[in-house]
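Postdoc handover notes: sequence design on the structure in folder B. Input tokens:
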């Protein structure tokens, strides 16, 4: 009996552990991703990675909760390819209330197996917008881009059995509709107040994989939220145009400070890091390089203000160049891609104030009389220890020095250092001679 009891206890432990392990398997898990930002390379990489991981783990489905103003075409197509090649169903849920699936978000929603929206949300306005370095493409090129996007949207709607005409209108005419209208026009499959309602309504829905009809079961599924790691969060934040702009300005100020005060090291290092991060962010933003050049011109003008006495004119020109460059930096009509005017005003004001102050400090330091070394001896006064007839000795700055003079100087006379000669010999002149000359009054007529 004593031998049987441990075996029973061990069996109970193993039996109790088996449900927990089966519950942690991917078969009952729905991976829940929350995307509340623009569609950029970072979000595309994150969604693609999670879809592939969920497929490897044979999880039940992927739920992408979406709230986006749009984004880059390349990033959008990467996400859609991941959706179309997934063996497990993809659910796109436009939520919470007040959210939107605009521009690139429209096509991502159309490509999902199940498209769901929360009440009070909207979808649409998927017309392609030309972004770039200030050179707008001609009408023929824009027509090609529009036709390509419209055909792409129509093919996605056709594959998922959704309203093809509306999908094309969303691209060509930038139409946007509410959740209720989207359901009525067969753009989406369901309207759900929350994820709990969503899971309940989707149970029993059908989807197609490899030409076969599958039935989706969500009654026993468990939502597992998955967030970006710290690296992805940082990179995603950098894709914000305001953050990218602030990083660029920080980098420029750091580099300027290092140039104006060589050897400080720390400002230069921080500036270089900020510039590199800004360049990464600009790779996913429509940057106008004329704006970049204007900002660089502003820095050149500020540096010249240190070297050339212009009484502030170069600094004023730098401030004007910086302001116009900041306004022109992002070349896009999309609001979510533009830099806040308040951010530009505050940044230009603070940056200009800091650079002007630093420039003034550098100029003041350069004009300050030298008080150390050989140059610091010039202008010092002292006393002749012995008569100086060409050469002699003087007492200056608490020390005896060999001295020379062009005029004879009596012992005990006050002297002033004119120059430091080779061999640490001071060239001096008598102060009394100057004083006596000043006391000579003009003769009366």
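Designed sequence:
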């Amino acid at each position: 009996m004593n031998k049987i009891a441990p075996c029973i206890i061990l069996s109970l432990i193993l039996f109790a552990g088996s449900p927990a392990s089966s519950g942690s398997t991917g078969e009952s898990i729905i991976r829940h991703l929350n995307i509340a930002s623009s569609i950029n390379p970072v979000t595309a990489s994150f969604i693609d990675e999670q879809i592939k991981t969920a497929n490897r783990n044979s999880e039940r489905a992927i739920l992408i909760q979406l709230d986006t103003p749009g984004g880059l075409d390349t990033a959008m197509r990467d996400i859609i390819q991941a959706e179309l090649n997934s063996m497990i169903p993809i659910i796109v849920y436009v939520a919470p209330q007040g959210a939107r699936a605009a521009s690139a978000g429209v096509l991502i929603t159309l490509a999902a197996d199940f498209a769901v929206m929360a009440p009070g949300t909207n979808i649409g306005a998927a017309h392609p917008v030309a972004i770039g370095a200030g050179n707008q493409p001609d009408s023929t090129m824009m027509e090609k881009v529009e036709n390509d996007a419209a055909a792409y949207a129509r093919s996605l709607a056709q594959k998922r059995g959704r309203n093809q005409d509306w999908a094309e209108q969303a691209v060509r005419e930038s139409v946007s509709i509410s959740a209720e209208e989207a359901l009525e026009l067969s753009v989406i499959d369901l309207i759900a107040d929350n994820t709990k309602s969503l899971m309940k309504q989707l149970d029993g829905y059908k989807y197609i994989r490899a030409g076969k009809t599958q039935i989706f079961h969500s009654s026993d599924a468990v939502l597992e939220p998955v967030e970006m790691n710290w690296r992805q969060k940082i990179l995603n934040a950098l894709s914000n145009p305001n953050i990218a702009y602030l990083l660029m300005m920080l980098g420029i100020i750091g580099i300027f400070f290092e140039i104006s005060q060589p050897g400080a090291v720390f400002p230069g290092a921080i500036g270089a890091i900020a510039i590199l991060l800004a360049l990464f962010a600009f790779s996913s933003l429509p940057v106008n390089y004329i704006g970049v050049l204007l900002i660089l011109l502003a820095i050149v003008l500020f540096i010249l203000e240190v070297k050339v006495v212009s009484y502030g004119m170069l600094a004023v020109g730098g401030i004007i160049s910086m302001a116009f460059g900041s306004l022109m930096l992002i070349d896009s009509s999309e609001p979510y891609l533009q830099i806040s005017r308040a951010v530009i005003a505050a940044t230009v004001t603070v940056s200009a104030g800091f650079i002007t102050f630093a420039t003034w400090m550098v100029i003041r330091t350069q004009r300050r009389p030298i008080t150390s070394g050989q140059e610091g001896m010039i202008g010092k006064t002292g006393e002749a220890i012995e008569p100086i007839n060409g050469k002699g000795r003087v007492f200056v700055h608490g020390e005896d020095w060999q001295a020379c003079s062009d005029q004879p100087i009596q012992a005990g006379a006050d002297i002033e250092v004119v120059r430091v000669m080779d061999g640490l010999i001071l060239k001096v002149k008598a102060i009394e001679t100057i004083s006596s000359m000043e006391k000579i009054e003009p003769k009366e007529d």
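Context for whoever picks this up: The first helix runs from residue 4 to 23. Don't rerun without checking with the PI first.
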